[in-house]
Design goal:
single chain; 277 residues; mainly alpha; 14 helices; globular; disordered C terminus
Length: 277
């Protein structure tokens, strides 16, 4: 239930970001500053020792959150979240090199399917001016993948600490952009909701939930975010993805979810069953 609540809170990013009239990097910086304040009391006394994976993970987290806000502003919320959700295919590609993880035939089939789904996003959006936002969203998926790879290399390090320092770095980068103009009172209120309830509290809940669930449960529940995100935007903003983006997003979500489910079942001891199908 904690993970479900986390995914629902995360899914509010699309319509909340679009409600704020401000520079995207300023939005990212202010959101992260507020989230860092919310997370700080839950960090605890233990601290991870400085290491290349830790620094790398913090930088990749910062890149991911800034790029996501910018891409959400420049393309549809559905495109931004689903193209970022392609991170597992980059993990499959680079994991074999960086993490020394074996990439099998199924992995490459999923990679091809996801790339095909991603291509569909660009069929309608070239004429709608969403090209830059789509490209940024793809780059955000790559940075998100390397953030996850860095966390894996930490071997049990506290993900909440990475998020905390990543938010601090994002706030510092966003500070110069915040001084260029001021958000309206309504935008400021949305920013507080965005920082506390969309980013801060969900990561606290996630750090608790992830220790008590299986990999399969994590994969199934995490799919809630990219599904709900465009639904909230449709209901509150009236924005709907293009026909081809909708089809491409369906292909991406189904492919990534199927890959994750099969991988989780293999790791849980059901390899014989999976191999039979």
């Amino acid at each position: 239930m904690l993970l479900v609540i986390t995914a629902v809170f995360w899914s509010s990013s699309g319509f909340l970001i679009k409600m704020i009239v401000w520079n995207p990097i300023a939005i990212a910086g202010a959101r992260s500053a507020i989230a860092a304040v919310a997370i700080w009391p839950f960090i605890g006394k233990t601290r991870m020792k400085p290491s290349p994976p830790l620094v790398y993970g913090i930088i990749m987290y910062t890149a991911t959150v800034i790029i996501f806000v910018a891409s959400t502003k420049l393309t549809t919320a559905a495109n931004a979240i689903i193209l970022q959700y392609t991170a597992p295919i980059y993990i499959a590609i680079f994991g074999a090199w960086i993490l020394k993880e074996k990439t099998g035939v199924l992995d490459w089939i999923i990679v091809v399917a996801v790339l095909g789904g991603m291509a569909l996003f660009f069929l309608d959006d070239i004429s709608k001016g969403n090209m830059l936002g789509n490209i940024l969203a793809i780059i955000g998926g790559i940075s998100y993948a390397f953030e996850i790879i860095a966390m894996r290399k930490l071997k049990g390090g506290c993900p909440l600490e990475i998020v905390f320092w990543g938010n601090i770095l994002t706030a510092v980068i966003g500070l110069p952009f915040m001084t260029l103009s001021r958000p309206s009172p309504s935008s400021l209120l949305v920013l507080i909701v965005l920082g506390v309830f969309q980013l801060g509290i969900p990561f606290i809940l996630y750090s608790i939930a992830i220790k008590n669930i299986s990999a399969l449960e994590a994969i199934l529940v995490s799919a809630i975010e990219p599904i709900l995100n465009p639904i909230w935007v449709l209901l509150f903003i009236g924005e709907f993805p293009s026909r081809w983006a909708f089809i491409g997003g369906t292909v991406v979500l189904l492919s990534i979810s199927l890959h994750g489910i099969i991988a989780a079942l293999k790791n849980s001891g059901s390899k014989e069953y999976i191999d039979s199908i």
